[in-house]
């Protein structure tokens, strides 16, 4: 239990953290990896280079300072982060190290402004916040161990399928011959790879792109191009060098961006680009269970060449009694124009959404951050309730309100 004095001091630092939070977290990661380089086996190097991890941590620290006396407000965000931590095999023994270097970064960046009272108060607050994460994550580890496995497990590639010019699917089964565990449509797994010539392991989280209840997991990976080296390294390695009979390591399914079972509510699955992957899991699950719910599947892509799962989507839609598919292509070719489900050229906009949706339905959104930001703003402007809007980030969560499409 934190004292009133500690709470007052921590809350008083919120404006400073809002202003200099990313500077502090950037300094934190630099110092942490210098002294504990083995932690680079856990963290996504591309997110570090792009500053997304630093921004996500800065947002979390700022939120903790703001709500230090109401930590229950942060529980949904804590659970989302905890899913990622469990999937990456972050352990409770990492938290004291993080706390030490976070306090050190606050002191070194803020200088004399970080008085002994502030450092002491943040030290106490960190212990409380860390324990919340540790407790939530331990429950997740226990559940994973009971239902599947709790760390990394080797899987064998049993099929590799090109879904579009950019996206390839990998079908995976456990090397030990065990049964593939169940999962909730929308969840993801962490893939861990050792790439020849690289000192550290690489972790990437990929949505499971097919319905549960199969003999294999399916992940579908977009080949990244025109990005920093680390961002494309894993996807290109998977595309170019991982083939049938090769092995990769996975953690058990995780994530809270999942299909909710509210039978009377219309389902809207809205995706852009590779954001279609968790939507395929949800759509195929609804098809397998012969759902009679109203379902609207909306997908935006540059054109048909990069549009993955087009035939599979049509098959699932046709098997459902109350489902429709709506495709928007930015620059369609002649063949795209003949697609019976193609409805618009350009970008998904508010006017178009207004014609397609049931405003009282449930909305699941995944794609590039700018795409999600726009779609969520459109839905809110159209009067959709916030609690009915669900979305999934690739990588660390960033603030949609602060996001700039630079």
Automatic annotation (TrEMBL):
Positions of NADP(+) binding: 273-278
Cofactor: heme b; FAD
Keyword vocabulary terms for this entry: Detoxification, FAD, Flavoprotein, Heme, Iron, Metal-binding, NAD, NADP, Oxidoreductase, Oxygen transport, Transport
Catalysed reaction, written as an equation: 2 nitric oxide + NADH + 2 O2 = 2 nitrate + NAD(+) + H(+); 2 nitric oxide + NADPH + 2 O2 = 2 nitrate + NADP(+) + H(+)
Residues engaged in binding heme b: 85
Matches recorded under Pfam families: FAD_binding_6, Globin, NAD_binding_1
Free-text cofactor note: Binds 1 heme b (iron(II)-protoporphyrin IX) group per subunit. Binds 1 FAD per subunit.
Annotated site, Involved in heme-bound ligand stabilization and O-O bond activation, chain positions: 29
Region (Reductase): 149-406
Domain FAD-binding FR-type per the UniProt entry, residue ranges: 150-260
Top-level lineage group: Bacteria
Active site feature: 95 (charge relay system), 137 (charge relay system)
Influences the redox potential of the prosthetic heme and FAD groups (site feature) positions: 84, 392
Family label: In the C-terminal section; belongs to the flavoprotein pyridine nucleotide cytochrome reductase family. Belongs to the globin family. Two-domain flavohemoproteins subfamily.
Physiological role: Is involved in NO detoxification in an aerobic process, termed nitric oxide dioxygenase (NOD) reaction that utilizes O(2) and NAD(P)H to convert NO to nitrate, which protects the bacterium from various noxious nitrogen compounds. Therefore, plays a central role in the inducible response to nitrosative stress.
Entry remark concerning the domains of this protein: Consists of two distinct domains; an N-terminal heme-containing oxygen-binding domain and a C-terminal reductase domain with binding sites for FAD and NAD(P)H.
Official protein name in the record: Flavohemoprotein
Species of the source: Metabacillus endolithicus
Gene: hmpA
């Amino acid at each position: 239990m934190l004292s009133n004095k500690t709470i007052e001091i921590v809350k008083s630092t919120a404006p400073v953290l809002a202003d200099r939070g990313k500077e502090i977290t950037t300094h934190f990661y630099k110092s942490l990896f210098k002294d504990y380089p083995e932690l680079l086996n856990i963290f996504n190097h591309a997110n570090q280079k792009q500053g997304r991890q630093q921004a996500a941590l800065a947002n979390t620290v700022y939120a903790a300072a703001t709500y230090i006396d109401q930590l229950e407000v942060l529980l949904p965000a804590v659970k989302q982060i905890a899913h990622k931590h469990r999937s990456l095999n972050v352990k409770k023994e990492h938290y004291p190290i993080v706390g030490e270097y976070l306090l050190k970064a606050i002191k070194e960046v803020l200088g004399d402004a970080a008085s002994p009272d502030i450092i002491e108060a943040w030290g106490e607050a960190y212990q409380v916040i860390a324990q919340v994460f540790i407790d939530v994550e331990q429950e997740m580890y226990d559940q994973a161990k009971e239902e599947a496995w709790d760390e990394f497990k080797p899987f064998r590639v049993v099929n590799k399928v090109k879904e579009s010019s950019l996206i390839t699917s990998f079908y995976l089964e456990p090397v030990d011959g065990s049964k593939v565990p169940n999962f909730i449509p929308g969840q993801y797994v962490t893939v861990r790879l050792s790439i020849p010539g690289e000192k550290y392991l690489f972790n990437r989280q990929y949505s499971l792109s097919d319905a549960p209840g199969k003999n294999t997991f399916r992940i579908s990976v977009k080949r990244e191009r025109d990005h920093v080296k680390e961002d494309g390294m894993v996807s290109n390695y998977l595309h170019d060098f991982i083939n049938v009979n090769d092995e990769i390591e996975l953690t058990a399914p995780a994530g809270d961006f999942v299909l909710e079972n509210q039978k009377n509510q219309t389902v809207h699955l809205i995706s852009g680009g590779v954001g279609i992957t968790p939507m395929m899991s949800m759509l195929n699950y609804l098809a397998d269970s012969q759902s009679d719910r109203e379902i609207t599947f909306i997908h935006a892509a540059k054109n048909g060449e990069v549009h993955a799962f087009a035939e599979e989507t049509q098959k699932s839609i046709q098997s459902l009694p109350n489902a429709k598919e709506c495709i928007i292509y930015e620059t369609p070719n002649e063949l795209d124009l003949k697609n019976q489900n193609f409805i618009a050229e350009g970008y998904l906009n508010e006017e178009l959404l207004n014609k397609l949706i049931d405003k009282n339905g449930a909305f699941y959104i995944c794609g590039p951050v700018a795409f999600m930001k726009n779609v969520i703003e459109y839905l809110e402007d159209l009067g959709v309730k916030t609690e009915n809007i669900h979305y999934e980030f690739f990588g660390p969560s960033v603030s949609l309100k602060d996001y700039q499409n630079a």
